[in-house]
Structure formats: C-alpha cells, structure tokens
Write a structure and sequence with these properties.
CATH topology: Rossmann fold
Helix content: 40-55%
CATH class: Alpha Beta
Oligomer: single chain
Largest sheet: 6 strands, parallel
Radius of gyration: 18 Å
Shape: globular
Strand order of the largest sheet: 3-2-1-4-5-6
Number of strands: 6
Length: 220
Amino acid sequence: MNQLPPAAALPGPATVSSRPLRVIVGLSGASGAAIGLRVLERLAASGRVETHLVVSRAAERTLAAEVGPDALARALALANVHHDHCDIGASIASGSFPVAGMIVAPCSMHTLCAIAYGQLGNLLVRAADVQLKERRRLVLIARESPLHLGHLRAMAQVTEYGAIVAPPVPAFYLRPPDIAAIIDQIALRAIGLLGLGLDEIAPLAWQGEMETDLAATAGE
C-alpha cells in the first residue's frame, strides 16, 4: 500500500497556462489516502490545472500511516496552492473565487455528513458547500463499509444537492495488475467526473471485449 507508480513520470506542479483550470482537492481522514495523492499527481502532470489543496488533520495521520511519513510533504509539493484546514477565510471559501470543481478523495463519512447537514466548521467542508451552492461539480470518493442507514441518508442528501458520490470501487473488468493500477484508475475516474475535458488523463474506458468474447462463443 505504501508504493504508488513511479513518480518520475508524474512531476511536481507544472507551470500552468495563464488561464488555468482551478480544481480544489480535499483529503479527509478516511482510508484511501493514496487516491487523493494520485489525483494530485495526475492533475499536476497535466500542466493545465491549478490545484488548491486542503488536508484535514485526520488526513495527515492517514497519509503517514498508509502511504509513508513523507506523504504529506509530497502532497504539498504537488499542489499549486495549499490552504490550511482551519482557514475559513481562504479564497476557496467564497463562491466569487472561480474554480472548475472539487474532489474530496478520500471522503470520510464524517466529512460527507458534515457537507450533507451544513456543518461548515472547517475549510474543507466550507469549500465543498460552496461548490454545491454555485452549482459546480463536487466529487466525493466516499470511503466506508458497511454503511448504516445514517450514512446512506447522508449520501442521498448530498446527491440531491448536486454532489457526485463515487465510492472507490475498482474496475475489475480492466484486470488491474496491482494495487497501484487500482489507485490510478479510481483517481482518473474521479478526475473524469469533473468533466474538465483533459483527454490526456482520461480514465480507461471499457471497449467491449466481453461482447466480442460472447459473440465468438455463441452457440457452443
């Protein structure tokens, strides 16, 4: 779990264009911290996105436990702008600050429920709430299992508000060779859900091989 694909092909924050796409990336304290780190790596490598990072205190601990002691430093180095989790006066706390959307990866049930019920006590939740009120895309990589009824109701509520709840489910049909490939696929899928038009980092798509296999074996 501590190893992601080689970082050599995924550099730090590139110099983005004069009119970059801005994306907020939030990391909360659920398991799956490597997904958020991979989202940052992929967006940085595109060279077309200005990333604004918010990391909760719990996420700092999870990054260290699941990815390694240097994981937080890696995340901060990848982001173009880092906002303190407690800074509710940051630029991304206002709807007047234009961004293309936000990904929370991973999104703990604590954070998801706070978004669902308007408990805006920190910048991560406030920024997510801003996406909803401004009718921008908010992708929540919700991490918990099993789910009780309160979790499900909160997930339904944020969906009604306009958020996209996307649990980190592997695309097994792509036959990922290792956990790094699974992390990459989930990260790419999350980015794809923002609809940014970044074809160079588009998620892998199903090409219908199964249909071909079924047609070849029909009648056997």
